[in-house]
Amino acid sequence: MDALKNIFAQVKHFLDLPIAEVGKTHLTLWSIIYLILLIFLLLFITAKLKKWVVYKLLEKSKIELGVRIAVGTIVRYLILILGFIIIMQTEGIDLSALTILAGALGVGIGFGLQNITNNFVSGIIILFERPIKVGDRIEVGDVFGDVVNISMRSTTVITNDNIAIIVPNSDFISTKVINWSYNDRNVRFNIPIGVSYKEDPQKVKQILLEIAADTEGILKYPAPEVLFSEMGDSSINFILRVWTDQYINKPAILKSILYFEIFKRFKKEDIEIPFPQRDLHIKNTDFKIQTS
Questions:
Q1: What is the pLDDT of residues 145-182, one digit of tens each?
Q2: For the chain, how many structural domains are there in total?
Q3: E strands within the chain?
Q4: How does pLDDT run across 11-30, given as a tens digit for each residue?
Q5: Which domain holds residue 139?
């Protein structure tokens, strides 16, 4: 029994040895282990609290999931900061000794971490203002695809080639963004067509409307329409306007389907599709060819 007490005493003595000093506070091995356990517990509890706020407390509200996640994240960060301060004070650590570290961190944020801070703030703006949301078809810069995830730092976009592109959130705030499905998934496409001057415009219009009506994926309302756009150099030009909610992520396929069918019908109806023509007029002049 005395040997066991002796072991405990030696362990306690070892754990109580000061190994670091913060301000006027001496940190022992036991206090460091205790701090690590408390911080781990704080992280675990705040993570569970965030899920409860997002999926329980705000679930029945009309707030969108992205906004609920932003609220839960902010609540978690605030509790983490408050909990960290309380843990430090409980251990008797003089927080004033951390002012130099906080100042250095502030300088780091101002210089080296300004992009991260910018993306973080932009993420909060996106989650609250909702200019884009998960499922939207967007175009930003040379990136074109579907939004599959919005985090606090970046947004993940899946392209038609099934490539995931990570876009910094600041790009959605500082640059022009095209949201193809901001209100709904209905999108209008303009298909240019040119025919010969000898063709009847009314007949061309009727054929184009019939093709649009028979093409799967084109909406009946708003109805397709044909515009007589211009009389060009070698053709009379039309624009076939169609609405779709199925080809928003593959517009080139819809255009290909329509052009295949237009070419087939025009050939069947003997409607000429012209090619650019130029008339060359040579003015007759007198000239002599010298031979040696």
A1: 888 888 778 889 988 788 899 998 888 888 888 888 77
A2: 3
A3: 18-22, 25-28, 137-140, 143-150, 154-158, 164-168, 177-179, 187-195, 225-231, 236-244
A4: 555 555 666 555 556 667 77
A5: 131-179
